[in-house]
Write the structure tokens for this entry.
Amino acid sequence: MKIELVEFLEKFEDKDDPFNRASVDACQRFLNANEDLTSPDIVASPNGTIICQWRKDENRNLTIEFLKDGSVHFVLFAPKGSKTIRVQLSCSLDEVRQKIKPFGAESWVCKNG
């Protein structure tokens, strides 16, 4: 997944660096530490932070924004019975997997899920 982030950043190589360096570094650390995740869609927010998104369908969606202080903010949509729940949290990088696990998100964000 590191390759996808590098390719994304290279698109902006000729422009002034629009990215917050702390956000890029946090994203790289997260993706390197979680190599069992499928490749996310990667976008930049208007304020220069990096956002990764894993979307299986309208009821299974995980979006993680890597904040300037090294923490993350994530929004998760997951099925619960016949409904879809929405979870929104801020946490440290190393807490993300622990926080999404109870909602079954690893079944669609992990390669072996």
